[in-house]
Please model this.
Amino acid sequence: MASSAERPGENALLLNGDLWEEGVVGIRIAGPIRVETVVSQGCRPIGETLLITKAEGNMLHSLGGRNALEVTQEILETLRPEEQELIRKEGLFLGIVVNEYQPAFERGDFLVRSIRGADPNNGALAVGENVRAGQTIQFHIRDARTADEDLRLLMARAAEDETAPTGGLLFSCNGRGVRMFDLPNHDVRGVLEAIPETPLAGFFAAGELGPIGGKNFLHSHTASIAIFRPA
Model:
Protein backbone atom coordinates (compact mmCIF):
# COMPACT_ATOMS: atom_id res chain seq x y z
CA MET A 1 0.00 0.00 0.00
CA ALA A 2 1.66 3.21 -1.19
CA SER A 3 0.93 6.19 1.05
CA SER A 4 1.25 9.91 0.52
CA ALA A 5 3.74 11.74 2.68
CA GLU A 6 1.39 14.25 4.30
CA ARG A 7 -2.31 14.40 3.40
CA PRO A 8 -5.01 12.29 1.70
CA GLY A 9 -5.30 13.01 -2.01
CA GLU A 10 -1.57 13.19 -2.64
CA ASN A 11 -1.34 9.65 -4.02
CA ALA A 12 -0.69 9.20 -7.72
CA LEU A 13 -1.46 6.18 -9.90
CA LEU A 14 0.25 5.50 -13.24
CA LEU A 15 -1.33 3.39 -15.98
CA ASN A 16 0.16 3.15 -19.47
CA GLY A 17 1.57 6.65 -19.25
CA ASP A 18 -1.60 8.19 -17.78
CA LEU A 19 -1.75 9.79 -14.33
CA TRP A 20 -4.76 9.12 -12.07
CA GLU A 21 -5.55 10.71 -8.70
CA GLU A 22 -7.99 8.02 -7.56
CA GLY A 23 -8.98 4.43 -8.26
CA VAL A 24 -7.04 1.18 -8.42
CA VAL A 25 -4.39 -0.08 -10.82
CA GLY A 26 -3.87 -3.84 -10.96
CA ILE A 27 -1.67 -6.30 -12.79
CA ARG A 28 -2.86 -9.74 -13.85
CA ILE A 29 -0.19 -12.42 -14.00
CA ALA A 30 -1.03 -15.33 -16.29
CA GLY A 31 0.65 -18.08 -18.25
CA PRO A 32 3.12 -20.84 -17.29
CA ILE A 33 4.36 -19.14 -14.13
CA ARG A 34 4.30 -20.01 -10.45
CA VAL A 35 4.16 -17.33 -7.75
CA GLU A 36 5.76 -18.08 -4.38
CA THR A 37 5.20 -15.67 -1.49
CA VAL A 38 7.38 -14.88 1.52
CA VAL A 39 6.05 -12.64 4.31
CA SER A 40 8.75 -11.79 6.85
CA GLN A 41 7.06 -10.21 9.86
CA GLY A 42 10.38 -9.61 11.60
CA CYS A 43 9.40 -11.19 14.91
CA ARG A 44 10.43 -14.18 17.00
CA PRO A 45 8.30 -16.05 19.54
CA ILE A 46 8.91 -15.99 23.29
CA GLY A 47 7.46 -18.25 25.95
CA GLU A 48 5.13 -21.11 25.09
CA THR A 49 2.01 -21.38 22.96
CA LEU A 50 -1.20 -20.61 24.85
CA LEU A 51 -4.92 -21.15 24.25
CA ILE A 52 -7.37 -18.25 24.31
CA THR A 53 -10.25 -19.25 26.60
CA LYS A 54 -12.17 -15.96 26.70
CA ALA A 55 -12.19 -13.02 24.28
CA GLU A 56 -14.54 -10.39 22.90
CA GLY A 57 -13.72 -8.41 19.78
CA ASN A 58 -10.11 -7.34 20.10
CA MET A 59 -10.10 -7.76 23.90
CA LEU A 60 -8.32 -10.88 25.15
CA HIS A 61 -9.58 -11.76 28.65
CA SER A 62 -8.14 -15.16 29.57
CA LEU A 63 -5.40 -17.56 28.49
CA GLY A 64 -5.65 -21.17 29.55
CA GLY A 65 -8.47 -20.22 31.88
CA ARG A 66 -6.39 -17.60 33.68
CA ASN A 67 -6.30 -13.81 33.74
CA ALA A 68 -4.55 -12.74 30.49
CA LEU A 69 -2.60 -9.88 32.06
CA GLU A 70 -1.31 -12.07 34.89
CA VAL A 71 -0.17 -14.74 32.43
CA THR A 72 1.59 -12.09 30.34
CA GLN A 73 3.38 -10.64 33.36
CA GLU A 74 4.59 -14.10 34.42
CA ILE A 75 6.05 -14.71 30.95
CA LEU A 76 7.78 -11.33 30.90
CA GLU A 77 9.40 -12.06 34.26
CA THR A 78 11.07 -15.17 32.81
CA LEU A 79 12.78 -13.22 29.99
CA ARG A 80 16.37 -12.12 29.95
CA PRO A 81 16.99 -8.47 30.99
CA GLU A 82 17.88 -7.47 27.41
CA GLU A 83 14.59 -8.93 26.16
CA GLN A 84 12.64 -7.09 28.84
CA GLU A 85 14.36 -3.84 27.85
CA LEU A 86 13.51 -4.49 24.20
CA ILE A 87 9.84 -4.87 25.06
CA ARG A 88 9.92 -1.59 27.00
CA LYS A 89 11.34 0.15 23.91
CA GLU A 90 9.58 -1.60 21.04
CA GLY A 91 6.46 -3.09 22.61
CA LEU A 92 5.09 -6.61 22.87
CA PHE A 93 3.42 -8.47 20.02
CA LEU A 94 0.94 -11.32 19.80
CA GLY A 95 1.24 -14.12 17.27
CA ILE A 96 -2.07 -15.77 16.34
CA VAL A 97 -1.93 -19.20 14.72
CA VAL A 98 -3.80 -19.12 11.41
CA ASN A 99 -3.96 -22.84 10.70
CA GLU A 100 -4.60 -24.87 13.85
CA TYR A 101 -4.49 -28.22 12.03
CA GLN A 102 -0.76 -28.91 12.24
CA PRO A 103 1.34 -30.74 14.85
CA ALA A 104 3.68 -27.83 15.68
CA PHE A 105 3.93 -24.10 15.03
CA GLU A 106 6.95 -22.10 13.87
CA ARG A 107 7.76 -18.81 12.16
CA GLY A 108 5.41 -18.17 9.29
CA ASP A 109 2.50 -19.88 11.05
CA PHE A 110 1.59 -16.83 13.18
CA LEU A 111 -0.23 -13.65 12.22
CA VAL A 112 1.64 -11.02 14.26
CA ARG A 113 -0.31 -8.13 15.76
CA SER A 114 0.59 -5.46 18.30
CA ILE A 115 -0.65 -5.42 21.86
CA ARG A 116 -2.08 -1.94 22.25
CA GLY A 117 -2.69 -1.87 25.97
CA ALA A 118 -4.06 -3.63 29.03
CA ASP A 119 -6.84 -3.03 31.54
CA PRO A 120 -5.51 -3.66 35.06
CA ASN A 121 -9.07 -3.68 36.43
CA ASN A 122 -10.14 -6.83 34.59
CA GLY A 123 -6.79 -8.15 33.27
CA ALA A 124 -7.74 -7.90 29.59
CA LEU A 125 -5.28 -7.21 26.76
CA ALA A 126 -6.19 -4.99 23.80
CA VAL A 127 -4.91 -6.60 20.58
CA GLY A 128 -4.63 -5.12 17.10
CA GLU A 129 -6.89 -7.86 15.71
CA ASN A 130 -10.18 -9.49 16.67
CA VAL A 131 -9.53 -12.69 18.61
CA ARG A 132 -11.76 -15.53 19.80
CA ALA A 133 -11.77 -18.39 22.27
CA GLY A 134 -10.08 -21.53 20.93
CA GLN A 135 -7.28 -19.78 19.06
CA THR A 136 -3.65 -20.63 19.79
CA ILE A 137 -1.32 -17.68 20.42
CA GLN A 138 2.27 -16.99 21.37
CA PHE A 139 3.89 -13.73 22.39
CA HIS A 140 6.52 -12.23 20.06
CA ILE A 141 9.20 -9.55 20.15
CA ARG A 142 10.73 -7.51 17.30
CA ASP A 143 14.04 -5.75 16.74
CA ALA A 144 16.58 -5.31 13.94
CA ARG A 145 18.48 -8.51 14.77
CA THR A 146 15.28 -10.55 14.90
CA ALA A 147 13.99 -9.00 11.67
CA ASP A 148 17.26 -9.83 9.92
CA GLU A 149 17.20 -13.39 11.25
CA ASP A 150 13.56 -13.87 10.27
CA LEU A 151 14.06 -12.69 6.68
CA ARG A 152 17.15 -14.85 6.18
CA LEU A 153 15.45 -17.93 7.61
CA LEU A 154 12.37 -17.59 5.41
CA MET A 155 14.42 -16.80 2.30
CA ALA A 156 16.63 -19.84 2.98
CA ARG A 157 13.50 -21.98 2.83
CA ALA A 158 12.48 -20.33 -0.44
CA ALA A 159 15.96 -21.00 -1.87
CA GLU A 160 15.48 -24.75 -1.35
CA ASP A 161 13.36 -24.78 -4.52
CA GLU A 162 15.71 -25.91 -7.30
CA THR A 163 13.81 -24.02 -10.00
CA ALA A 164 15.62 -20.72 -10.55
CA PRO A 165 13.40 -17.63 -10.20
CA THR A 166 12.74 -15.51 -13.26
CA GLY A 167 12.04 -12.39 -11.19
CA GLY A 168 10.63 -11.04 -7.96
CA LEU A 169 8.81 -8.18 -6.26
CA LEU A 170 9.75 -6.86 -2.83
CA PHE A 171 7.55 -4.55 -0.74
CA SER A 172 9.13 -3.34 2.51
CA CYS A 173 7.41 -1.35 5.24
CA ASN A 174 8.67 2.23 5.43
CA GLY A 175 9.40 1.50 9.09
CA ARG A 176 12.18 -0.84 7.98
CA GLY A 177 15.13 0.30 5.83
CA VAL A 178 17.60 2.60 7.60
CA ARG A 179 14.95 3.33 10.24
CA MET A 180 15.44 -0.22 11.54
CA PHE A 181 18.78 -1.46 10.18
CA ASP A 182 22.28 -0.04 10.31
CA LEU A 183 22.91 -0.55 6.58
CA PRO A 184 20.77 0.58 3.63
CA ASN A 185 19.16 -1.92 1.25
CA HIS A 186 18.90 -4.55 3.98
CA ASP A 187 15.84 -6.36 2.63
CA VAL A 188 17.09 -6.31 -0.97
CA ARG A 189 20.38 -7.80 0.19
CA GLY A 190 18.58 -10.46 2.22
CA VAL A 191 16.49 -11.56 -0.76
CA LEU A 192 19.31 -11.56 -3.32
CA GLU A 193 21.75 -13.41 -1.04
CA ALA A 194 19.26 -16.29 -1.03
CA ILE A 195 18.27 -16.13 -4.71
CA PRO A 196 21.16 -14.31 -6.44
CA GLU A 197 20.91 -12.89 -9.96
CA THR A 198 17.13 -12.63 -9.65
CA PRO A 199 15.70 -9.45 -11.26
CA LEU A 200 14.01 -7.66 -8.37
CA ALA A 201 11.74 -4.61 -8.18
CA GLY A 202 9.41 -3.06 -5.61
CA PHE A 203 9.03 -0.13 -3.23
CA PHE A 204 8.63 0.95 0.38
CA ALA A 205 5.03 0.77 1.59
CA ALA A 206 2.72 1.97 4.35
CA GLY A 207 1.14 -1.47 4.69
CA GLU A 208 1.75 -4.77 2.93
CA LEU A 209 -0.62 -7.50 1.75
CA GLY A 210 0.43 -11.12 1.97
CA PRO A 211 -0.63 -14.62 2.99
CA ILE A 212 -0.06 -16.28 6.35
CA GLY A 213 -1.21 -19.88 6.63
CA GLY A 214 -2.83 -19.66 3.19
CA LYS A 215 -4.95 -16.60 4.01
CA ASN A 216 -4.28 -13.01 2.97
CA PHE A 217 -3.87 -10.27 5.59
CA LEU A 218 -2.87 -6.64 5.83
CA HIS A 219 0.47 -6.25 7.62
CA SER A 220 2.87 -3.63 8.87
CA HIS A 221 6.66 -3.76 9.39
CA THR A 222 7.01 -6.69 6.99
CA ALA A 223 9.12 -7.48 3.98
CA SER A 224 6.56 -9.09 1.64
CA ILE A 225 8.02 -10.84 -1.38
CA ALA A 226 6.60 -12.44 -4.53
CA ILE A 227 8.98 -14.81 -6.32
CA PHE A 228 8.19 -15.85 -9.89
CA ARG A 229 9.29 -19.26 -11.16
CA PRO A 230 8.48 -21.18 -14.37
CA ALA A 231 5.49 -23.46 -13.87
The helical segments are 68-77, 81-90, 144-158, 186-194. The first strand starts at residue 13 and ends at 15.
